[in-house]
User: Fold this.
Amino acid sequence: MAGKITFTMIKPSAFRSNYTGGILKMINDAGFVIKAMKLTRLSKEQAGAFYEVHKGKPFYESLVEFMSSGPIVAAMLEKENAVDDFRTLIGATNPANAAEGTIRKLYAVSLQENAVHGSDSDENANIECDFFFSKIEII
Ligand code: ADP
Ligand code: MG
Assistant:
């Protein structure tokens, strides 16, 4: 059975452009409940660890640089079928391929600066929530 939890980050480009409110509204309007949330900034080491699965890929160094370039908003979200429904809400990784009305279609500026992160599996959603939130920070 699909899990109820996913994890998202509003990436530095979207935060800098003041898209945080618009993105959170879309998330709430789609039926996701915010279970934990924080505004923070990743060091290069932390961004590198978060994206460890991409280590070795041509875009990894630049992704780490970008993700540590400014504040991000991290959030744990709850909904039935959370991982898949959230991936549908954000759209394709490359905004050029993202469906109309998706968060990435509306707020991304490029493949790298694609506005938001979304977990790709229940297992990774749990790992990513653990990366950012302790027990006392989750409602
Ligand atoms: P998603 O975020 O949709 O799960 P991936 O896990 O494949 O996508 O990639 C993680 C992030 O790395 C993307 O959201 C994007 O910011 C960046 N990225 C992925 N592929 C590329 C690429 N070819 N060039 C530049 N950045 C990329
Ligand atoms: Mg991914």
